[in-house]
Amino acid sequence: MCDLLDSQPAGEKKLSRMKKLRRTLSESFGRIALKKDDSGFDEICVTKMSTRNCQGMDSVIKPLDTIPEDKKVRVQRTQSTFDPFEKPNNQVKRVHSENNACINFKTSSTGKESPKIRRHSSPSSPTSPKFGKADSYEKLEKLGEGSYATVYKGKSKVNGKLVALKVIRLQEEEGTPFTAIREASLLKGLKHANIVLLHDIIHTKETLTLVFEFVHTDLCQYMDKHPGGLHPDNVKLFLFQLLRGLSYIHQRYILHRDLKPQNLLISDTGELKLADFGLARAKSVPSHTYSNEVVTLWYRPPDVLLGSTEYSTCLDMWGVGCIFVEMIQGVAAFPGMKDIQDQLERIFLVLGTPNEDTWPGVHSLPHFKPERFTQYSAKNLRQAWNKLSYVNHAEDLASKLLQCFPKNRLSAQAALSHEYFSDLPPRLWELTDMSSIFSVPNVRLQPEAGEGMKVFGKNNIYGKGLSNIKH
Question: How sure is the predictor about 32, in pLDDT bands with cuts at 50, 70 and 90?
């Protein structure tokens, strides 16, 4: 054979070598097969190969199905986003293939790559705990219980991090609650510093468990700990973070639909995070008709109270206005004690009873009957909540959020540019989605009246109906 090759012209020799090299490479790539493992993740099955020279002409090639199982190494496909549950390993070099699989090659002290490939962010031992498994987390204590879910403080057995386990009970005849499906599907795609992070989902025959980052308390408990209104600087930082998170989801056509202090988590460093997306909806364009049985009564806008089922991001912005006033004043803005009629009366007492001039189309709403409401004229907000006058531009911002006519309400993005925030560092508007506002120098919470920042207790939310306070 060698003699034949030697007798051939140089051009033909070169062509023969190229054909042989192409055939070798083709056979090598043919040994990579995409398949699914039992946990539902896409995985790539990669076989070990050895080469005898740098040209790869003498590679040992075997068909995939003839290689023993213990010689196959499986590598989990991962997203390119930051995974807070990934174990740090300074000796890992990531190589992204064309199909976005993340393959981790361990490097030795000499800098040479080892052909061994490990399963991404998962212990190699088959008996070690893995993500997505019921035994991967240890329950430490119960934080709260609702109509269909119980929340526990937990700990990951994989990396020791604290988590919140929202255990949803499944009824065989009823199936998985739609709110749990909606919450999980929406949160999987939301990555922002001011939105609670969903780490893992565990599905068994009896339960569906959503594993969240652990956050120490919520805004309701924080305000209960500091009655009479919060420090003005802290109100500004909390509100900025709330608007930042809302702007992020609104730009993705998602409405939260259940804004209230119990659904705003506060970490021990002061980070505010939107939580409980059980009532959230991905809004299509143009607007469809939605249920008007959304948003806790005290934070429900007048258009929804009057039976409107066509709404947009302005629904959430009314709740922002109510929470803003409550943080400053120390009491709920519109604490209805009886029913929807009482709630509307409290709103109209401050903002004025609407008519076609102040609210075009109000007479067409199902529950608006002019004769049922006392005719009030609009007041300055400081007459109802005097502490708004203590902070520059606070009353103006609140008045632009608390508009009865939905289309007049300020959007989250526009609210972030309001003069109320003009004394904050400009760098806050340049942060990436996953960057905390507290990463900017000199941005920090101030001690509240009477004590420092060590005010955190049990967190009893992460789910609908888990709060001890009923409105």
Answer: very low
Tens digits of residue pLDDT in 368-399: 998 999 999 999 999 999 999 999 999 999 99
Listed in sequence order, the residues at least 6 apart from 160 whose beta carbon sits closer than 8 Å to its beta carbon are: none
Indicate which residue of 258, 276, 303, 316 is catalytic: 258
Residue 179 CA to residue 147 CA, distance in Å, equals 12
Cα–Cα nearest to 28, from 54, 63, 53? 63
CATH classification at residue 395: 1.10.510.10
How far apart are alpha carbons 194 and 244 in whole angstroms? 7
Confidence of residue 53 (pLDDT cuts 50, 70, 90): very low
Determine contact, residues 276/464, Cβ cutoff 8 Å: yes
Torsion angle, alpha carbons of 323, 327, 330, 332, to 10: 0
Q: Are residues 252 and 315 in the same domain?
A: yes
- Say which residues have a Cβ less than 8 Å from residue 47's Cβ, sequence separation at least 6: 31, 32, 62, 64, 67, 71, 72, 73
Residue showing tokens 């998602």:
254
CA distance 449 to 75: 53
Query: How many domains would you assign to the chain?
Result: 3
Instruction: List the domain range (segments joined by +) for residue 427.
Output: 219-439
pLDDT at position 310 over 70? yes
Q: Are residues 338 and 254 in the same domain?
A: yes
How far apart CA 388 and CA 11 sit, in angstroms, is 87
Residue after which a domain boundary falls, among 77, 110, 143? 110
Residue 10 CA from chain centroid, whole number: 64
CA 400 – CA 456 distance, rounded (Å): 32
Pairing of strands 113-118, 102-107: antiparallel
Q: What is the mean pLDDT of residues 419-432?
A: 97
Q: How far apart are CA 412 and CA 418, in angstroms?
A: 10
Six token digits for residue 175 = 């199936």
- The per-residue pLDDT for range 139-170, each reduced to its tens digit, is 999 988 877 788 899 999 888 999 999 888 88
Q: Is residue 396 flagged as an active site residue?
A: no
pLDDT category of residue 174 using cuts at 50, 70 and 90:
low
Could you tell me the pTM of the whole model?
A: 0.67
Return d(Cα 362, Cα 369) in angstroms, integer: 10
